[in-house]
Amino acid sequence: MRAYLAFTKKELTEYTRNFKLFLAIALFALLGIMNPLTAKFLPDLLGNFMPEGITILIAEPTNLDSWTQFFKNGTQIGLFIIVILLSGMMAKEYEKGTLINMVTKGLPRRTILFSKFTGALLLWTISYWLCFFITLGYTLYYFPEGTTENLALSVISLYLFGVLLIAVLLLGAVLFKNAYGPLLLSGAFLMVLFLWNLFPEASEWNPLMLASRNMDMLQGTLLLEQLWNSLLTAGLMIGSALFAAVKIFKKSGL
């Protein structure tokens, strides 16, 4: 446990030194600010930029528009940022050979991987929930009369999908030992999930639902009872990716 905590601390220190933590916090904080602002002022901006004589009828923005921006930016931008920042989580260690010294001094390989996963998970957790609470604060300010019933379910679902992507990235880092392999594996993984939806009978088991139907959850048309299969699949995939990464890392050269 002491070695695990020490190596995890090293990971967080590296994220600070290479500015990844600062960059993630800054970008996700910006997204958190932009979500409600876009929902609030986009209709006015569209009206001002339209040519004379042309009018567009746009409904009055509500808090749901703010959360629509949150989930849209979270999946299209937020997850992309995290994947890019974490794609090289083990590439430098392989390149510089620093893992050899750690392993020869008795540090278990599984401890290295779990510390890497924990560090990446903390980066995602801090960034994601910072974005959420900023969005929540501004949404309550601009749309105080709006109500949301299943907000916790929808935001936790997207968060868990991010954890799944991090596990896939770690597996890719072990398999390819560079920064490009994890990106390719993540892209292939997402492609498989999109193709999965082509089979309606199996789509309820697709973990992509956790990141694609958040507004349905928020509006009460998709309930927790209907997500159990997707949650189970996501949990099994996270565990399988970590298990495979540990097994492969134990047998691979450094």
Quick summary:
The chain has 254 residues and is an all-alpha fold.
Describe it for me?
The chain is mainly α. It has one domain (2-251). It has eleven helices and no strands. It has helices spanning 2-17, 20-49, 63-86, 91-96, 98-104, 109-142, 151-176, 180-196, 209-212, 214-218, 228-251. Helix 2 (20-49) runs parallel beside helix 6 and helix 7 packs parallel to helix 11 (228-251). The longest helix is centred in the middle third of the chain and has 34 residues, at 109-142. One of its GO terms (molecular function) is ABC-type transporter activity. Keywords: Membrane, Transmembrane, Transmembrane helix.
Question: What characteristics describe this protein?
Answer:
membrane; ABC-type transporter activity; 254 residues; mainly alpha; transmembrane helix
Q: Level of helix content?
A: over 70%
Element string (H = helix, E = strand): HHHHHHHHHHH
**Judging from the principal axes of the Cα atoms, what is the shape?**
globular
Number of strands: 0
Number of domains: 1
Structural class: mainly alpha
Report how far apart the termini are: 23 Å
Largest sheet: none
Task: Indicate the low-confidence ranges by residue numbers.
Answer: none
If you compute it from the alpha carbons, what radius of gyration comes out, rounded to the nearest whole angstrom? 21 Å
Work out the helix count.
Answer: 11
Mean pLDDT: 87
Strand content: under 5%
